[in-house]
Amino acid sequence: MTRTLWRDHDWHLIHVDPQPPALHMALDEVLTHEVGTGRRPPTLRIWEWGGSAVVIGRFQSLRNEVDAEAARRHGIEVVRRVSGGGAMFIEPGNTITYSIYAPLSLIKGMSFQEAYAWMDAWTLEALGELGIKAWYQPLNDITSEGGKIAGAAQAHRGGAVLHHVTMAYDIDAAKMLDVLRIGREKLSDKGTQSAAKRVDPLRSQTGLPRDAIIDHMIATFRRLHGLAEDTLRPAELEQAQALALGKFSDGAWTGEVA
Amino acid sequence: MHGEYKMPGGKLVVVDLAISDGCLAQVQVSGDFFLEPDDALHAIDAALEGQDAGADEHMLATAIRVQLAPGVMMYGVSPEAIAVAVRRAIDQGAAA
């Protein structure tokens, strides 16, 4: 396998109506697999959230990370994703999330650190065009002078890499801290006292509506890498719906690390 | 018993465990780190299960390392960082 460049691939865009959190988890698994087998071209998927969620990382402890009672009280679904990294607190209008499904050749020979920055170079460019000077903060954060903007995670499956990113457009910090358990040890080398202060959302930094930021990001990706309109194929959606109802709604998966 | 360690420049490692007859039991390693392939987490838990509760960090890290299949990739975590979190769980649990 030799290294490929962005322009070596025929990128497709999926950006469809809001979907429930468990279906998003399932779509990441299915679409990564489809790109890995070559049935689907490399794809950028922009998520629209159908409901509030806490998304915990593949290796996080459910009980250590989430206050289950608070999540229930706020009507927040708790799901586990297929990639590592930290918990994300999602409210539909407050979050911009995307996934890139690419052949592993795109990051061949790169360190983890290089691969993260490489997959999000277009995002940093898009943010720069919106007046936000953003950069990659290893290992997996996108940050600006105002604070953290986004977190990324990658997973390798078969011949493909899944790279997904959640960006904070706005944030209800009080609710987030009610639901997520963020310990002092986690913040110990971040140089800040509070988890809420660590995140500085895009809304305050751009003054733009969420949709305008997404439109701009899509245009930047298209300009840099090329991007054709696409949608979910019936078989992909069917497979993802089965996984969403099974694995990703099942306590055995969500509580796999208890 | 519960221990946490934020690896400098890396991610948070969390360990929950019990001690039974002087040995580690019900070991669960967790955190916001990255592992490929993902089932390597089970191998890490299994490597720690039954270790002597008096084992030092070096011994614990070695126990993890020898259990890991070739090709396992760790990002933001290491056998040494996990060992620190294990020792913290044991020592803080003993002090509590």
From TrEMBL, chain A:
Record key words, sorted: Ligase
Residue ranges of every copy of the BPL/LPL catalytic domain listed in the record: 38-229
Keyword Ligase: yes
CDD domains, A to Z: LplA
Pfam families reported for this sequence: LplA-B_cat
Protein name in the entry: Lipoate-protein ligase A
A GO molecular-function annotation: ligase activity
Keyword Ligase (UniProt): yes
TrEMBL record, chain B:
Annotated Gene3D superfamilies: CO dehydrogenase flavoprotein, C-terminal domain
Origin superkingdom: Bacteria
Keywords: Ligase
Single GO MF annotation: ligase activity
Name by which UniProt lists this protein: Lipoate-protein ligase A
Source organism per UniProt: Frateuria terrea
Taxonomic lineage from the root: Bacteria, Pseudomonadati, Pseudomonadota, Gammaproteobacteria, Lysobacterales
